[in-house]
Specification:
- The chain has 6 helices and 12 strands.
- It is α+β, with helices and mostly antiparallel strands.
- The protein has a domain of about 160 residues: Cyclophilin (Beta Barrel), CATH 2.40.100.
- Strands 1-2-9-5-6-4-3-12 form an 8-stranded antiparallel beta barrel. Strands 7-8 form a two-stranded antiparallel sheet.
- The N terminus is likely disordered.
Length: about 230
């Protein structure tokens, strides 16, 4: 529609068209897009900011943000630092006492990857857990290298699954239950990434480590304290 034709419309019609154009413009503009929640961490080594993705891993993000709102992370430490792997924190205070947590959150790694979510690459934020996939609570880690082996494996549709590839090996006509119950396929749920302050993470990954508290290795010799974690938006 040309500007001339637009002006020939009746007033009510012009008003409706103008309103529609405004809505469409908003939907396609960055301001109209959903803003990823951001959390600012203030540590003894500096500050960094992460953004999280509720559209990819909603339960995981809700769980993480609730710990932030509850001030759970304030006063905790990065208790596990491996320079060519990741830095992990969010579970222990400066005396190495483990903080109480809520019940574990359901594992969402495969669903997040299927939705196009991020993988375990440099700068991404993921939930720490035990060997039990559905055991993540408050602890998280930040990848400091690309850790492909931590990525969840999406199971193709079908029962049996016609073709499935894992670590370079192809499996054919595999019963679906055999795959959905395989712990090694769950990987680790990535739910965010560092958007500012990656230099601080790189500083943390380079600190000297050793034994500390109940841990026999990988503990920073000088404690790295999370002074505060604050929701920005």
């Amino acid at each position: 529609m040309t500007p001339e034709n637009f002006m020939r419309q009746k007033p009510a019609r012009r008003t409706w068209l103008a309103a529609t154009l405004v809505v469409i413009a908003c939907l396609h503009s960055p301001a109209g897009a959903q803003t990823a929640p951001k959390v600012k961490f203030v540590t003894s080594e500096g500050e960094f900011i992460v953004e999280v993705y509720p559209d990819k891993a909603p339960k995981t993000v809700e769980n993480f943000l609730q710990y932030v709102k509850d001030k759970h992370y304030d006063g905790t430490i990065f208790h596990r630092v491996i320079s060519n792997f990741m830095v992990q924190g969010g579970g222990f205070d400066a005396t190495y006492a483990q903080k109480p947590t809520r019940p574990p959150v359901v594992h969402e790694g495969q669903e997040a990857i299927a939705k196009g979510g991020p993988k375990n690459i440099v700068g991404t934020l993921a939930m720490a857990r035990t060997s039990e996939p559905n055991s993540a609570s408050s602890q998280f880690f930040i990848n400091v290298k690309d850790n492909d082996f931590l990525n969840p494996t999406v199971i193709p549709p079908g029962d049996p699954v016609p073709r499935f590839e894992y670590q370079g090996q192809v499996y054919k006509n595999t019963p679906r239950a055999q795959l959905t119950n395989a712990p090694q396929l769950f990987g680790y749920t990535v739910f965010g990434k560092v958007t500012s302050g990656m230099d601080v993470i790189n500083k943390i990954k380079g600190v000297a480590t050793g034994a500390g508290g109940p841990f026999t290795s990988d503990v920073p010799k000088t404690p790295i304290l999370i002074k505060s974690a604050t929701l920005l938006n």
